[in-house]
Amino acid sequence: MFSKFTSILQHAVEALAPSLPLQEDFVYHWKAITHYYIETSDDKAPVTDTNIPSHLEQMLDILTQEEGERESGETGPCMEYLLHHKILETLYTLGKADCPPGMKQQVLTFYTKLLAHIRQPLLPHINVHRPVQKLIRLCGEVLAAPTENEEIQFLCIVCAKLKQDPYLVNFFLENKSKRPEIKSPVVTDRVKENALAPDTGQSLAEEQADHQDKPQAAAAASTSSPSSNNNNSNNYNLVSSLLNLTKSPDGRIVVKACEGLMLLVSLPEPAAAKCLTENTELCELLTDRLVSFYKALPQSMDPLDIETVESVNWGLDVYNLKEDAAVFTGKRALISFLSWLDYCDQLIKEAQKSAAAVMAKAVRERFFVSVMEPQLMQTSEVGILTSTALLNRIIRQVTSEALLQEMVYFLLGEEREPEAAATIAQNPLRHRLIEHCDHLSDEISIMTLRLFEQLIQKPNQHILHSLVLRSLEERNYMENKPQEEREPLENGQPHDAVDLEEDPLFGDDISPDNRLSGSDWLSSSPPQSPDHSKSDGKTEVHKIVNSFLCLVPDEAKSSYHVEGTGYDTYLRDAHRQFKDYCGICQRWDWRGNPKPFEKCNLDAPFFEGHFLKVLFDRMGRILDQPYDVNLQVTAVLSKLSLLPHPHLHEYLLDPYINLAPGCRSLFSVIVRVVGDLMLRIHRIPDFTPKLLLVRKTLLGLEPEGITIDHMTLLEGVIVLEEFCKELAAIAFVKYHAAASSSP
């Protein structure tokens, strides 16, 4: 029995023996540091002339070795010694006093490596997070300080630790009224006290019970518990220090500080998110810098330069001033602006939801409303063109949901009810932008149309509702007749519906090559598209397709004389684009079938909406306006036609709807244009050969500079023919998608 007890005791001693030399070694190095302060009288010598850096490095190595030799999560005697003797508190005091000179740098490095190399969670310990919090306050105090690099490394490792365990952020929300600012005694006296304290070697079991348990950890710190964060008197020093370092002249420091902020805004803790937006200057930093970069841009810039400058990712802003200036004036300023915009966008995208909303609103109020709106509302054509091109680039670049929402509200307003002709000017900016689509300056018209083309492709439902859908909600573009008064249907169509195949304007000129028989459209169908339900009573697709293909009479067609310009090329593009749109719109509550007539307010007066009115007006002048304008008008209309909304599809792509008196649809607008064209064709000698020559010139098959009479008209006819083919392809693809998804 006694021998068995002796054996157990011997094994226990052997198990403990290896750790004793490590602890003795650790204590030796720490005592060597503290004895330096007791014995030295020259505190002006730099720390690099002493053995302190070496001793600190040895202490880190011992702690790392100790953790590697023990089971995961087990605290060794060296770590217990560091915690129990408040070594980090003492180092903080030495670092704050920077005694000897350079000690702050050494302390920052020690903290950084300790947090980075030790795997067990240290921040829950009060003797870790309290000195860490104090050291954070020392960072960013002085710009371009010699310790900036060490400061940012330290702050970033703290951010990384908080990202791993977000609940720990509560330790770093410091109540202003309870800030424990301890007046430090003379450094040497403080260190003497620690150095001469007896090495009790006692266990930290009690302290760990108080401070290491995670649920209790956040509540244990009286200055930082979640309950004390429900007021607005918290300091978020970690954010404040990072914000200071974003003002560093060293670009690398700025990028690292921005990365640290990116980690902090993404923390899910509501108290941290609230403190971030209410008690720090983060929103001010984002918006002030955005405004500053924007105001540094030249007053006049080529829209093409703005549109084509390479895509910019924040943090990868490498540049050459001479090369940039040689490309175009203002390129460097533009890249700086777009780079910071990208950072704001990504920060808001990563941020906790409530924080993202606050930051996005700040950008709207302090940048869009205060700075951009006056630029967009000015009367100088050069200024309008530059600011519109910049806005277009901003729209293209923004991807965060919260910032996109605020930008859309800024541009279009938040109204949801249907538009009325008398109230279209209620939102001055929205009204001005839409009016610019029909500006006297073709350049402004084209740029604004591009802006709206970009806007309607963004994944935001309010854009489409504001611009078009709210005017079509009640389907009051259809004639209001009770069911019993309507004519009986023939082949699915009203008796008095215009049959374009019988219409004398089109009937004799339908080219067999351009027709699609009832079986042809099935055999040439593209691959399946995403779900889009088939509408009840939908006109057969081949009739719709032929209606668009046959709108332009044969003598006004030129595409069949040139290879590779057939209808099939539009089918492929329409299928791809429709699939993309379905992906964007699938989250929205768009029913597959139109709203039933009995639920529609058909008596309400119909107004197509300001945006569609301007587009239809411009479409009606397609034969008399420049080629580039026509391309942009039809590009916007084709994008709208691709949207998988049943009312928009009906209004833009169904030639057979029974329009209410005084109403127009896209098809009826084109019919009027074709009627005007038929009258004008006969007044132009050699119309068809001239038309073919213009098409070949536009395709680069004929030399430029050839003088041709009626060039604007001929170019307009070509755009009209291509647009009708595009609409036919879109109608076909959407019908096929609906048929594929039908049960």
From TrEMBL:
The residue ranges flagged as biased composition, category Polar residues, are 514-526
UniProt-annotated stretches for the region Disordered: 199-233, 480-537
Compositionally skewed regions (Basic and acidic residues) per UniProt: 480-489
Residue ranges annotated for the FHF complex subunit HOOK-interacting protein C-terminal domain, each copy included: 608-700
One Pfam family recorded for the sequence: RAI16-like
Where does the record locate the signal sequence feature? Answer: none
Q: Where is the composition biased (Low complexity)?
A: 217-233
Domain of life the protein comes from: Eukaryota
Stated family? Belongs to the FHIP family.
What protein name applies here? FHF complex subunit HOOK interacting protein 2
The organism encoding this protein is: Amphiprion percula
